[in-house]
């Protein structure tokens, strides 16, 4: 199967036939504030994108405009991630023919996203929030770049733009006219003035033509796209540089980010596979893992392109990389975050590494890794001694007999490793003779008689080793790992920081003459507008660019609109939110990479396609791609699905975000119990986090439940007054979302919306977002038709709706007898959670210690579940609970260390309660531990976090678990 045939099939199935939006929606908000010839607006539109010149432009609204302006600012606050507040200039209004159809248009020839901040008592200031966009009906990007660079406030520029867009002889009116008067008129006109409005004038781009062009290019057979649609043996090889870099093919991940076991496995898989698919439920750290994969690739000398479906997704990826340290990522698209990152990047564009600097940072990195290894080795030895002591106590009665068998083994300075090695059977050539010789050597070393059987000698040597461990442990007062735990936390943090610094210097050190020129060109491009940036990047060597700056982040649309069309320009392409991405949209990004990592959640809302089944059959038949028909079924198969068919899924199992009550329903109903909750803790395990408010509402003929709208607004006011700072209002239905939005604009002030971090949207609109608190308006009643209930009961929709909250969910419903999954969720919400139970211990020491602690009046739980782990013993209630290690982990020291790190990242305090510390006396242990755990004032202490925590893990000052997360292992 050829890649060009696949591309032609995808081109035929491209959803570019969606209707274009050619008129601003001025009805959802206050509409358009006409600024006319205002100088502040023009300065904001034409201001350079240079981050060092981002001074806000002051502006004062006229008295009659102030109410409308405040409403627009409130609307922008409700949709902050979408950047819907825009300044436009030169509005084309009236009837026009667009793509052969007669339409009424209202579009600015120039548009730019802005923020409107209060300044003084009555003034405002325009803050640039993105790139200038030239007329969306202008399809020739080179002409658009030319017009963008010579933007001028005159009729000549307006006429040139209209002519290039296919409009000629359009009258140009002055700024004293209001464009709203001409939308419904009989003549097409341009009003040459500025206007402030909400809503982005988007016209869909023609992806089909782009994919046809790609199909004609050489080199597409050796791209990530080929790996997605080919068998493993036909997939592109990895001939990227850096094959001998540290950690290239080993099973160890040393990076700037801490990782859970499942995240580490995903990073290892992504090192060589043509296509790697990362799946996981909400809060499992998918973005964290994708960032770790990208940085791991950079450490191996590779370049990485990261892309998301939305600007918000791209910003989240960029921010994750930025927090991790290492090379500054290049946000090349229309991102508000790009300005801040461009400032950081600009400060280091001319950076070079001094003589010996990289070697010094490399030594710091290796020293830090070695320090961690030393501590881990000390822990392994201590745990091994504890196991030996336990065995010595169990078999104490046999010690005299063992001393008789091997008296020298019980002396000082015995090399037990050598003795064990001598007693191991030999195989292969002369195996029997070599075994007999080794046993004779062991007898001599242990002082055993010649007739002592090998099995008896081996048992005696083990006993001697146990006796020696008893002496060592007794001399230390028993096994206590508290000091090593503290050292490990410090060295883990130091190691992550050292690796990040080394990565940043490593990227700079690779800048030769060509890459340095590319960096200078990039500096110019980042200060240019969107179209000019594309033209500037097209003239730069892609290999030089990615060598100088290995991390690039943008939306999937940005990738095709801005980056040069070079097959395999990047060593790795990472695509997030892939379940919500259709294949034609992702194809240009996959073509620009050699290997791909695809992340997403198949249980959440899927992509929307306007392609019919007949179109799929015709496209597959016409291009001869029948063998891939199941994978190329674009309406049904998302990018995630296609990746899973090609490579399987690495599933992230740990959940880092929500309290058990919030995630419990989704975990059981949508993820089949495959979520391991790292947030389980006595402080939150039995906390009721979901409230249900029943109201007597009805839906009108427009689908609006006004009573629920009132209840939502009343609840918002209460929570904002109580200090809530992140509230999302979510509903399944568009009409209800619009009604809540209008009510919020009518009844809440800008200060309230901003203070409460209020956002309003449908479930589809909030996918990928999360909030401290979520208010759900179901809008449905018992009288609503089955079709409405079927829509609300969609599994994917509810998988999103029920997992947006980090702390609290408040459900407003008018249904008294809800049906389907909605009914199940409300019943789940109505039952307060119970305390998380554990399991009975398998060892006697833990059982006896738990009984003694309980006898002293302390809550003691054994086998307490935290993520994939079981805590041996948990003592105490709520925020004072402490995790006790009562024995070495049965799966070995590596598992013991991994459990430590997981508990520390989840905010637990961990202590030791090994038998050797208390001479095997559980009563003594209980008394001493009870004194040790006496209540102390909880004081948040800043400590290094050494486990992967998703960006929104229970972030509330009031939560005891939050305080524990901040305090680490205080």
TrEMBL record:
UniProt key word Lyase: no
Pfam family, one: AAA_12
Native species: Saccharothrix texasensis
GO molecular function term, any single one: hydrolase activity
Bias (Low complexity) ranges: 937-949
Name listed for the protein in its UniProt record: AAA domain-containing protein
Composition skew (Basic and acidic residues), residue ranges: 959-970
Matches recorded under InterPro entries: Coronavir_polyprotein_1ab, DNA2/NAM7-like_C, P-loop_NTPase, SF1_C_Upf1
Every DNA2/NAM7 helicase-like C-terminal domain range: 638-814
Alphabetically ordered keywords of this record: ATP-binding, Helicase, Hydrolase, Nucleotide-binding
Region annotation (Disordered) ranges: 230-259, 937-970
Lineage: Bacteria, Bacillati, Actinomycetota, Actinomycetes, Pseudonocardiales
SUPFAM superfamilies: P-loop containing nucleoside triphosphate hydrolases (SSF52540)
């Amino acid at each position: 199967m050829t890649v060009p045939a696949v591309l032609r099939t995808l081109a035929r199935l491209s959803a570019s036939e969606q209707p274009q939006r050619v008129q601003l929606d001025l009805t959802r908000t206050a509409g358009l504030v006409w600024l006319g010839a205002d100088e502040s607006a023009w300065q904001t539109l034409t201001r350079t994108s240079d981050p060092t010149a981002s001074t806000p432009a002051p502006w004062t609204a006229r008295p009659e405009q102030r109410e409308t302006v405040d409403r627009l600012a409130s609307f922008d606050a409700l949709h902050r991630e979408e950047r819907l507040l825009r300044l436009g200039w030169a509005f084309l209004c009236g009837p026009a023919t667009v793509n052969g159809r007669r339409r009424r248009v209202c579009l600015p020839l120039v548009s730019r996203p802005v923020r409107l901040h209060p300044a003084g008592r009555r003034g405002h200031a325009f803050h640039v929030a993105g790139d200038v966009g030239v007329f969306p009906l202008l399809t020739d990007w080179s002409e658009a770049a030319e017009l963008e660079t010579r933007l001028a406030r005159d009729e000549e520029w307006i006429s040139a733009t209209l002519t290039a867009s296919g409009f000629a002889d359009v009258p140009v009116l002055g700024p004293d006219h209001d464009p709203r008067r001409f939308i419904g008129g009989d003549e097409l006109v341009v009003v040459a003035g500025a206007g402030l409005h909400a809503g982005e004038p988007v016209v869909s781009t023609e992806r089909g033509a782009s994919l046809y062009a790609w199909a004609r290019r050489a080199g597409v057979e050796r791209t990530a796209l080929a790996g997605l649609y080919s068998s493993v043996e036909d997939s592109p090889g990895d001939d990227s540089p850096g094959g001998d870099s540290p950690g290239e093919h080993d099973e160890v991940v040393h990076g700037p980010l801490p990782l859970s076991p499942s995240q580490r496995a995903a990073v290892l898989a992504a090192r060589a596979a043509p296509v790697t698919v990362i799946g996981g439920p909400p809060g499992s750290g998918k973005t964290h893992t994708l960032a770790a994969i990208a940085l791991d690739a950079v450490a191996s000398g590779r370049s990485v392109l990261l892309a998301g479906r939305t600007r918000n997704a791209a910003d989240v990826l960029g921010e994750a990389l930025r927090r991790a340290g290492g090379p500054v990522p290049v946000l090349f698209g229309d991102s508000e975050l790009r300005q801040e990152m461009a400032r950081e990047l600009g400060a280091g564009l001319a950076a070079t590494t001094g003589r010996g600097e990289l070697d010094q940072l490399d030594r710091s990195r290796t020293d830090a890794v070695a320090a961690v290894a030393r501590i881990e080795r000390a822990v392994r030895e201590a745990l091994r001694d504890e196991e030996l002591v336990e065995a010595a106590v169990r078999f104490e009665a046999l010690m005299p007999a063992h001393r008789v068998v091997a008296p020298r083994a019980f002396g000082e300075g015995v090399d037990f490793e050598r003795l064990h090695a001598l007693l191991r059977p030999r195989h292969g050539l002369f195996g029997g003779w070599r075994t007999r010789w080794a046993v004779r050597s062991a007898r001599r070393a242990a002082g055993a008689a010649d007739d002592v059987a090998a099995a008896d000698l081996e048992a005696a040597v083990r006993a001697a080793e146990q006796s020696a461990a008893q002496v060592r442990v007794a001399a230390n007062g028993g096994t206590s790992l508290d000091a090593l735990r503290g050292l490990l936390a410090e060295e883990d943090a130091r190691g992550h920081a050292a690796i990040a610094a080394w990565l940043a210097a490593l990227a700079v050190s690779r800048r030769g003459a060509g890459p340095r020129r590319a960096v200078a060109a990039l500096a110019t491009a980042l200060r240019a507008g969107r179209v000019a940036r594309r033209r500037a990047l097209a003239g730069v060597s892609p290999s030089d660019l990615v060598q100088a700056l290995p991390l690039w982040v943008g939306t999937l649309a940005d990738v095709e609109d801005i980056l040069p069309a070079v097959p395999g320009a990047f060593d790795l392409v990472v695509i997030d939110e892939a379940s919500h991405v259709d294949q034609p949209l992702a194809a240009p990004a996959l073509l620009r990479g050699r290997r791909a990592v695809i992340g997403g959640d198949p249980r959440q809302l899927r992509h929307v396609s306007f392609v019919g089944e007949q179109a799929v059959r015709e496209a597959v038949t016409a291009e001869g791609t029948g063998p891939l028909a199941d994978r190329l079924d674009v309406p049904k198969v998302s990018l995630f699905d296609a990746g899973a068919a090609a490579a399987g899924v690495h599933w992230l199992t740990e959940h880092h975000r929500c309290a058990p009550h919030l995630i419990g329903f989704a975990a059981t109903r949508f993820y089949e119990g495959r979520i391991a909750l790292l947030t389980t803790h006595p402080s939150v395990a039995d906390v009721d986090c979901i409230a249900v408010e029943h109201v007597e509402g009805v839906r009108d003929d427009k689908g609006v439940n006004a009573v629920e709208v009132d209840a939502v607004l009343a609840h918002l006011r209460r929570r904002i007054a109580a200090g809530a700072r992140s509230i999302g209002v979510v509903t399944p239905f568009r009409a209800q979302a619009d009604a809540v939005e209008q009510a919020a604009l009518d009844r809440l002030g800008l200060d309230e919306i901003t203070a409460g971090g209020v956002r309003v949207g449908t479930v589809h609109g909030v996918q990928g977002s999360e909030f401290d608190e979520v208010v759900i308006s179901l809008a449905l009643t018992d009288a609503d038709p089955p079709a409405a209930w079927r829509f609300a009961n969609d599994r994917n929709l509810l998988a999103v709706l029920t997992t947006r909250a980090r702390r609290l969910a408040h459900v407003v419903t008018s249904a008294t007898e809800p049906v389907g999954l909605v009914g199940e969720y409300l019943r789940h919400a109505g039952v307060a959670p119970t305390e998380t139970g554990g399991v009975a211990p398998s060892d006697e020491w833990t059982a006896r210690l738990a009984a003694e602690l309980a006898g002293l009046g302390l809550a003691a739980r054994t086998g307490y579940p935290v993520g994939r782990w079981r805590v041996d013993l948990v003592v105490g209630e709520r925020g004072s609970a402490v995790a006790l290690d009562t024995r070495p982990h049965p799966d070995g020291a590596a598992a013991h260390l991994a459990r430590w790190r997981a508990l520390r990242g989840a905010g637990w305090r961990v202590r030791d309660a090994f038998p050797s510390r208390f001479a095997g006396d559980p009563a003594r242990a209980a008394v001493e531990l009870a004194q040790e755990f006496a209540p102390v004032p909880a004081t948040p202490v800043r400590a290094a976090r050494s486990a992967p925590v998703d960006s929104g893990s229970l972030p509330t000052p009031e939560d005891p678990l939050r305080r524990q997360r901040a305090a680490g292992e205080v």
